[in-house]
Amino acid sequence: MKSHFTFSKKQRNGIFLLLILIVICQCAYFFISFQSNHIEVDQLELANFTKEIDSLKQVEIKARKPKIYPFNPNYITDFKGASLGMNSQEIDRLLAFRKQNKWINSTKQFQEVTKVSDSLLNAMAPFFKFPEWITNPKPNYKASDNTSNSYSNKPKTYAQKQDLNTATAQQLQKVNGVGKVLSDRIIKYRNKSVGGFITDIQLHDVYGLTPEVIQNITNQFTVKTPKAIKKLNINTATVDDLVTIPHIDYDLAHSIIEQRILMEGFNSINQLKKVKDFPLNKIKIIELYLHFEKEK
């Protein structure tokens, strides 16, 4: 066996050279690429494939985008406004405007109130849906155009005026600016409570009646048989008592009582103006349900 593992110097050199060649071949196999780097690409086919991929991406993006349906911008909430791209300041301006019981009746007015950018307005405006009486208002004919079936704009005396609590929808529609929709709203509001209107001022609570139209109505009608109401003493009323008054909710009722404690009672309706978030534009209506008498 010893003779098989005994090598001469030449044989050892040959074996060493062979090992070196094996190592070189292994390195060449792992580190040298024998493939051609040039790849033939069909540019037309590649362009068509890229175009198809882009179109599929656009379809997917469009499918993921929330669908917007027509809506009345007066009822935009925080979530709705944010999803439409409005920032918090723009939404707050709209909510503050609506809190005054005012209404937005045009795209231009929406931008004036919220101060949204032109680009955002152009994206939102196509989805605005205003009431029909705004988009298709009834023509306001001049006095010279009035027929015998319409009232003139000339104010009548108290004796000549008709009772607003007994007026029919047909009679109200004779007033300039009042159509079927508005007359139905007036009747519906009147019938919400037994006895109808307390005073003409309540017409301001009917949605859609502008000051001009209200003036036209009160030129021909007035409340002659007011609903009887029991007034609350603002200085003894509880929260549950106060929330029965129109335009007073629980938050406002609590604020009124807190202010009442600080002032040791109210002496007049004007002092209610100091209450936080008090609806100043509704103060005359709220006053109908209150009287001021301090506890002894």
From TrEMBL:
Pfam families to which the protein is assigned, alphabetical: HHH_3
GO biological process, one term: protein secretion by the type II secretion system
Any Gene Ontology CC annotation: type II protein secretion system complex
SUPFAM superfamilies: RuvA domain 2-like
InterPro entries in the record: Endo/Exo/Phosphatase_dom_1 (IPR051675), RuvA_2-like (IPR010994)
Name of this protein: Helix-hairpin-helix domain-containing protein
Organism, as annotated: Algibacter amylolyticus
Organism lineage string: Bacteria, Pseudomonadati, Bacteroidota, Flavobacteriia, Flavobacteriales
